[in-house]
Structures are given as C-alpha cells and as structure tokens.
UniProtKB/TrEMBL annotation:
Zn(2+) 2 binds at residues 83, 118, 367. It comes from Propionicimonas paludicola. Its cofactor is Zn(2+). GO terms for molecular function: hydrolase activity, acting on carbon-nitrogen (but not peptide) bonds, in linear amidines; metal ion binding. This is N-carbamoyl-L-amino-acid hydrolase. Belongs to the peptidase M20 family. Keywords: Hydrolase, Metal-binding, Zinc.
Length: 393
C-alpha cells in the first residue's frame, strides 16, 4: 500500500473539533496508532519489537549493521497530519514496494516509530530516542508530569508497560545508519522547485521552564499598587523574547502557559511558561536565552514577584553525517537544506551516522492543522526513500 493510502487510514485518528490532530504520548489516539503500526508490520511480514521506552521497530531481517528508517506517530496538540506519520508511512510504503519487487536487503532493515517525539504531553521532546540513547535518564524522564499532574511512569504503567524497563536500549547498538524522511517544516523546497531535499543540519535549540511566582489575591478588592501579579513578568518576558530573537535573527516562543489558579476574578499566584528558543549557532542560543532570563528577572524584581528558571531539554547543533548526506544528495540529485525543527534524527546523530530527507511542504506551515504536502510529492518522497534503502540496504 502506498504512503498516501496509509496516511488516509490515519485520517480520523486523533482528529479534534478544531480540525487538527492531537496524538499525545500514550493517549488513546496514539495507542490506536501504535496498534495500526503493529498491524502494518504484521501485514508486511516484519517482526515487531518494542523497547522499554515505547519505541516500536518493525524488522526485516535481524542482526547487526542494521539500516533504520522511520519517524514518529505522536503530534503536538492541534498539530498537522504529516509531522511524523509521513516518515513512518513512507518507510512502510517503501518496504512494501521493495518486497513486491522481489528485492531483499543485504543487512537488517528496521522501520521505527519513536515514542513521544514532540514532548506535547510531558514537555520534553524526543523522549523515546533520548531514553534509548541515554540522552536523558529514566529517573528524570519518568518523573515528568503532564498537565493533569500524572507522571510518565504512571502513564506507562497504566498502559501495561513496566517503567523500570525504561532507559538506554541495546537494540540501537545493532543499528549503524538511520535515515528519517519528514515533511518539510518551513518553506525552502517550494521556491527551489524541488520535491525532496536532504538535511544538512539542525539548529541548536532548547526548551526552558519559567515559573513566575507572585501573590494570589482578589481581582476586585485589591488596588493595583498593592498587587504582586506574576502575569506582568510573564508578559514582559514574552515581549523580551520577541525583541531579543528578532534583533539577533533567532527564534523564540512562549507557547505553553499554565496560569494558577486561572480563575477570572483572582490575581494569579503562579504562571508557568515554557520558552522554546532556537538559534543558528550555540553561542547565539546561549546569548538569546541569557538575555531573556535577565529581562524576566528584572521584570519580576520590579513587581515584587519571583521567577524560577530551568532548562528542560537542550539539543546542540546537529551536523548530519557528511559522507551519508552527500551520498544521499548525489543519489537523489537533491539539494541540502538546514532545519530549525528538532527530530529524533538529531538525537541519534550523536550516536550513529544519520541523515534526513525532507518532502516539500508548499506553505511551510507545520505544528498546525494546515500542514500539508501533495500526493505527488508524497510519492516522490517514497521514491527517494526506496532508492536510498536500495542503495544502503
Ligand atoms: O519541536 C520540534 O522542532 C519538532 O517538531 N519536535
Ligand atoms: Mn516531527
Ligand atoms: Mn514536530
Ligand atoms: Mn560536506
């Protein structure tokens, strides 16, 4: 079955009234997708494994020196249909094509569905691949809590997994190359008139948690001069992030905010906000984040409130393996392009030769329901991935 048909099967899973897709780690929609993936593996005669972190891999052959392809099936809240699923569906479609053609790999081939790439529920991105590579400890990961206060460990246990099995997985030791196909996020391929590109690098980026603490009080009975409203330092931080990112040509977003108690007629006692900061070089990222933190602390001091700050997850600049990415670019006659989006491939690149293919996204929009590609470009992506597997496999 082709990638377009496979994606059509996922169309209703996790759809929201807003028209987006919400498929958070271990939620009902994502459990449906995991079962779908298992069904696809069985239909293709692939052997399905799951490591202690929830990463599923469907194997064609077994042993060392494996080639791994795939991506993730979870989404951000109200995300688009392709970020993640396109890579998994294209990998399954490529395997189906290769099997139908009678081709057999000379080395083991795995199709992976990495668990919780987006961090949409527990806040930290690429949890499955970070756990599998040791980039985060099981204790730190399992203690992460979602908006309801439930920890990852409790969620995994409720889904029949043993959280004690989480952590570095030995299966990655048998993998010697990873190629992830992904919908383009941003609009570079369209103006360059090509359907498929090869990733050169991933911008350094990080996620940082601000906690603005003030004095909860009555919204009607408290004079303005008597307030210690943490919302003000939060608002100043949002504006500072935009100002500092814009003036330095980098990127910063405060997109995940929790206001407590959150009632209309109470001055908040606490505002928790997550900063997503990205820059074209590590020193620039550090300067950007430090500048935002300085401004947050100054604003809090002015209002007699407090601010706590901590980095939740940071990913250094990723330069994809030169030999591999040049081989793919030559094979496909495809251009190379950097990306500001993070990926599991960025985590694996620290451990083994890794490359990414991007499929044209005509609007460049992602992490929103409007994310799209065309059926023709999706097929072109499968053509490219099939050629890559033939070449490497
Ligand atoms: O956040 C990212 O850049 C990725 O889409 N998870
Ligand atoms: Mn993704
Ligand atoms: Mn994403
Ligand atoms: Mn080079």
């Amino acid at each position: 079955m082709g990638a377009n048909q496979l994606l059509a099967e996922l169309e209703r899973v996790g759809r929201t009234r807003g028209g987006g897709y919400t498929r958070l780690a271990w939620d009902d929609a994502t459990m449906t997708l995991r079962e779908w993936f298992a069904g696809q593996a069985a239909a293709l005669g692939l052997e399905l494994t799951e490591d202690g972190n929830g990463n599923q891999t469907a194997w064609w052959g077994c042993g060392s020196d494996a080639l791994l392809v795939g991506s993730h099936l979870d989404s951000v809240p109200e995300g688009g249909p392709l970020d993640g699923p396109l890579g998994v569906a294209s990998a399954l479609a490529a395997v189906a094509r290769l099997k139908a053609s009678g081709w057999t790999p000379s080395r083991p081939l795995g199709v992976v569905n990495f668990s919780d790439e987006e961090g949409g529920r527990f806040g930290v991105a690429c949890l499955g691949s970070r756990l599998a590579t040791g980039a985060i400890t099981p204790d730190a990961a399992l203690a992460l809590r979602d908006a309801s206060g439930t920890s990852l460990g409790e969620v995994m246990r409720a889904r029949g997994r043993d959280p004690r099995a989480a952590g570095r997985s030995d299966w990655l030791g048998s993998v010697s190359q990873y190629v992830e196909l992904h919908v383009e996020q941003g609009r570079w391929l369209a103006p360059h008139g090509t359907a498929v590109g090869v990733a050169s690098a991933i911008w350094p980026h990080g996620r940082y948690r601000f906690e603005f603490c003030g004095e909860g009080n009555h919204a009607g009975a408290t004079a303005m001069a008597d307030r210690h409203d943490p919302m003000l330092a939060y608002a100043a931080t949002v504006l500072a992030a935009r100002e500092l990112a814009t003036s330095s040509g980098q990127r910063a977003t405060l997109g995940r905010v929790l206001v407590e108690p959150g009632s209309t007629n109470s001055i908040p006692s606490k505002v928790v906000a997550w900063l997503d900061a990205r820059a074209d070089a590590e020193p620039a990222l550090e300067a950007l984040v430090n500048g935002i933190v300085r401004r947050a602390k100054a604003a809090a001091e002015f209002d007699g409130t407090q601010v706590n700050f901590r980095a939740e997850s940071t990913t250094g600049a990723v330069e994809f393996d030169h030999a591999l990415r040049h081989r793919l670019a030559a094979l496909l006659d495809a251009p190379a392009l950097p990306t500001g989006a993070g990926h599991d491939a960025g985590i694996l690149a620290a451990k083994l030769p890794t490359a990414m293919l991007f499929v044209r996204n005509p609007t460049g929009i992602s992490h929103a329901p409007e994310e799209t590609s065309t059926p023709e470009d999706i097929e072109a992506g499968v053509d490219a991935l099939t050629a890559v597997i033939r070449d490497l496999g």
